[in-house]
Amino acid sequence: MVSSKAATPEDYIAELPAERRALVSRIRDLVNANLPDGYVERMNWGMISWEVPLDRYPATYNGQPLGYASLAAQKNHTALYLNCVYASAERTERLKQAWVAAGKKLDMGKSCLRFKGEDQLAEDVLADTIRAIPVDAFIADYEAGRAK
User: Fold this and answer.
1) Where do runs of H (alpha helix) occur along 35-134?
2) Strands of the sheet with 78-82, listed across from one edge
3) Phi/psi at 20 (nearest 5 deg)?
4) Measured between alpha carbons, how far is residue 67 from residues 7, 18, 108, 125 in Å?
């Protein structure tokens, strides 16, 4: 499943094969438990997304909410897209170092962490990463990037 037409995160998870459902649910629960106030969970781009709602910040370049993080069951892995990390080289490096310190093998693209099983999760590192950037700081990062 690369892109879903599910209307809600619950529908998205329900349509997954049983062997993928547990991992996606676990990551979703971890993100929701550590998400700073002001972000909302919804379906966008065919995956579960956590975003700055347009009524909070409408001045985006494409008219879409600012995406903080997204979660998708891809064909061969589960992907957690961390735009909150991608926006900062310092945050990216901190995540990489913390992941290694947790004793886990990191499979990471530019903004994407890839997992094939629950044993690959560094849950404390993910929790710290998700809760690290309040909405106002994320918007400031976005605006600084757009000003360049």
Assistant:
1) 83-86, 89-101, 123-131
2) 40-44, 47-52, 66-73, 78-82, 112-115
3) -100, -25
4) 17, 27, 18, 20
pLDDT tens-place string over residues 35-56: 999 999 999 999 999 999 999 9
CA distances from 25 to 32, 60, 96 (A): 10, 29, 23
Give the residue carrying structure tokens 């929790």. 127
What does the domain layout of the chain look like in residue ranges? 9-141
Contact 131, 113 (CB under 8 A): no
Evaluate whether the domain defined by 9-141 bears CATH number 3.90.1150.200: yes
List of residues 6+ apart from 57 with CB closer than 8 A = 65, 66, 139, 142
The token pair that represents 45 in the structure block = 């781009």
Residue bearing the bigger pLDDT, 148 or 27: 27
Residue with tokens 């993910």: 126
